Amino acid sequence: MKIISTPLELKRYLKTINKTIGFVPTMGALHEGHISLIKEARKQNELVVVSIFVNPTQFSKDEDLDKYPKKDGADKKICEISGVDILFFPNAKDIYGSDEVSLMAPKVRGFVLEGLTRPSHFNGVLTVVMKLLNIVNPTKVYFGKKDAQQLNLISLMVKQLFMSVEIVAVDTVRESDGLALSSRNIYLSKDERKEALKISSALYLARNLITRNILEVEVIKEQMLNSLQPLEIFYVEILNHDFEIIKKVEVGRSLVLVEVRVGETRLLDNIWL
Ligand code: PAF
Predict the structure, then answer these.
(1) Which residue, by CA, sits nearest to atom 1 of ligand 1?
(2) Would you call 34 a catalytic residue per the annotation?
């Protein structure tokens, strides 16, 4: 595995290679969720590039940028074992200058759900993903379905800015008890981890109701909200796959999303129905 830290060096190197490139952008602290993205990329491409970059512009001042888990040694090993060809490991100065051009998330879809309480978050995500895609110029790029709003906004960016990369959405990986894998799970104490199981339980509750043909969004949301008590709830929402509001669930075209705070940690999850 080759480790490259500057955009110029990576661009130069990739120019000499005529292969399909699968790209997995990450912020490190890699877990099974990331590994499943890498595995998909490995299956579908001749060359696999992973980036590890904790992007400062997607954190607001009061968020956990300084605390964000760093596991550089373990991450490198995981990449090596998973068959990554190139690990791109830039620092902030390699990616950002002083008077920056940046992207703006769409005014509606970028400022609801997670964007409502983190208004600059998706501007930062879109900007860094655009930069990384321009550096790597991959054939396919891999994102987890767990960050459904991020996936939706990046898909919109690729479409609206006429970019030619193909986006591959990969299923969420869960612990055996249902907790969705997240780099932030390591912040949870034993008790908080137990509390966090309310999230997947609420999603499974929604799925059960829908299986029993209870399809009214307000009815499902109310039961989910009750089941999540006493957690601090940022949102419980049921939308179609284009992130539009619906009144009734349409199986095969709907998405149930939850974001809560457990202790000090924001956790989000969803199921696609
Ligand atoms: O999902 C993430 O890890 C990040 O938001 C991403 C896409 C790597 C951009 O920093």
Answers:
(1) 26
(2) yes
Q: Using 50, 70 and 90 to split pLDDT, how confident is the model at 106?
A: very high
Closest-lying ligand 1 atom to the alpha carbon of residue 55: 10
Per the listing, tokens 């968020």 go with: 63
What tokens appear for 262 in the block? 């457990």
- Residue 135 near residue 161 (C-beta atoms within 8 A): no
Q: What is the pTM of this model?
A: 0.96
Give the helix/strand (H/E) hosting 34. helix 32-44
Using most ligand atoms within 8 A of CB, pick from 150, 152, 157, 158 the residue to mutate for ligand 1.
150
Of the candidates 203, 112, 183, the residue with the CA atom closest to the CA atom of residue 153 = 112
- Which is the catalytic residue, given 31, 34, 121, 241? 34
Domains of the chain: 2-170 (3.40.50.620), 183-272 (3.30.1300.10)
The per-residue pLDDT for range 232-249, each reduced to its tens digit, is 999 999 999 999 999 999
CA–CA separation, 102 vs 98, rounded Å?
A: 12
Ligand 1 first shell, C-beta below 6 A: 25-27, 55, 58, 125, 128-129, 147, 150
